[in-house]
Here is the input.
Amino acid sequence: MLLKHNPDSWIPYGHEHVIRVAAPYFKNVFYSDGRLDYVKTNREWTKRFYKFSLKKYLWFASLVPKLFTDKEFRHQLAVLRVRPNRVCFEREIMGHARLVFEKI
Here is the structure.
């Protein structure tokens, strides 16, 4: 799902790679893993997304015909339902590195 949703993206595996590539020009001065922060933030976004609003749900209802006619739209709904980014962070498949560099 992630590859289809973000087909042209490249996500480095591990922060060490980013630090190593930057090393000739930058010194890493700070690293922290914000993976759990991302999971919590994503849960809050989801709560707000589903919070009731008549205007929003009327708009959702207007999309029902698209559900039957657009395969890509159905895929996008599957992404919303599964939330593959959050699943990857919860299962520790991906991290969320915070890096601060100083120019050498």
Summary: The longest strand covers residues 26-33. The chain has one domain: 2-103. The beta strands are 26-33, 97-103.
